[in-house]
Fold:
Amino acid sequence: MFADCLLHSTCLSKSKHIRDSSTFSPASSLISSAILLLFKMGDESRSYTVDDALASVGFGKFQMLVLAYAGMGWISEAMEMMLLSFVGPALQSAWNLSSHEQSMITSVVFAGMLVGAYSWGVVADKHGRRKGFLITAMVTSVAGMLSALAPNYACLIILRCLVGIGLGGGPVLSSWFLEFIPAPSRGTWMVVFSAFWTIGTVFEASVAWFVMPTLGWRWLLAFSSLPSSLLLVFYRVVPESPRYLCLKGRTSEALRILEKVAKINGKSLPSGILVSDNEIELNVKSMESEDARLLPQSNKHTDDEKPEVIDHSKSNVSTFAMLFSPELIKPTLLLWVVFFGNAFSYYGLVLLTTELHNGANNCGQNGSQSQGSEEVSYKDVFITSFAEFPGLIISAFTIDKLGRKRSMSTMFFLCCIFLLPLTFQQPQALTTFLLFMARICITTTFTVVYIFAPEIYPTSVRTTGVGVGSSVGRIGGMLCPLVAVGLIHGCHQTAAILLFEFVIFSSGVCVMLFPFETSGRELTDSTVPETATTLEVG
Structure:
């Protein structure tokens, strides 16, 4: 009470001084600005943001339900990708396909994902996260089930491309889940979310092990489409992201969702009025502008040094063009390289495990690879899928302690070390060990980049930024079998491994060049120049 009276009397004295004076000294202006700032801060103490609300309610039962729903989508994508390892050889035998026709079954899925990752990201940023993953789940489940009924090769190619377009919406679900997690525990729970991908790969390998020898590839395609169908079953009870709603000015809807989160978690929301981060940043900027008008003309040059808040939600520029704004262009381009390197290396290592392990890598004197058995060893694929679990564990322990940048760069460079001996022929046991360790490293980087990427962008362009980056990664997935594995088939193992070394090392360097670290930082609704957002983990 005493402080309020003192502040009130001080403000009255200040207003009288303003009426009695036409000019101010710099000292009196600064004192006046400080008093006004204190007064406004007192008003704003009765408001809170989505981050404040999530920190208050914590990670509880509600977030576990959100995790289960988003995780089912991640399992669906992993199963649809993993089945390509089994369906291709089966169709080559059943339909007498050429090796080029067999590879097209995989390539069209990646091509569809390239289109879908960008398209669904834009839809989710413009019309909401729920609408984004509703459409993706519908396309994936329907096209996946129809693939099992495909009468010929042409129909199968078209339907698998549609499946790829639907799978491109995976980043929408990850961004949606991310926006429900309190900042202090975001890294750990995003690693848990990434574990659903590994669960999907292991589950698909186990299903294929039992289904393919008895029921055939059509039943495998049908079973693999079921997880995406479950997303449609529970869609009606899925909430919209409160952060997205706040950004669009729909704070009453966001408040209702946050109240439901608090009720289910058994916690209470902060007292006050829910506001968006963008509103607070714009208010701070207006306060700075008001203070600047009180300063003498000679001091106005300091205004240029203040960080400018950019409200993307009210911009007429397309969300894709916003990725190339001065504040985002550097992290965007670096992220593209990292996504490309991750996808190229991850899918390449999966293929190399087969190429270098099954004994078919022994080249004859004519420079062509000796042909071995083309049968898929379901047992071996099932066992090697477990190599990803150590990568997830490493991610969970390092992502918050070392930070996103240091975790990724360390594992990229370690991967280079493990692959280097494979530039020359090695004993089978050593080859298996080196590829196993390299896959652990790439699994770690892949896990961390899908956590790091959504944290880079503001809410207004988050799913677009992650979607476009993921699309660039799909290009790496398409090129990998054509370039790197093609070199193995041509008995150019040294060249193939050196290509992997170059891509992986370049990705590690690009990680180090990111202008900021996001570990422990709250998600933003608008962008601020790099100098204002840089936060390195000590």
User: Anything to note?
Assistant: The chain has a mean pLDDT of 74. The two ends are 41 Å apart (CA to CA). The CA atoms of residues 171 and 467 lie 6 Å apart. The first strand starts at residue 47 and ends at 48.
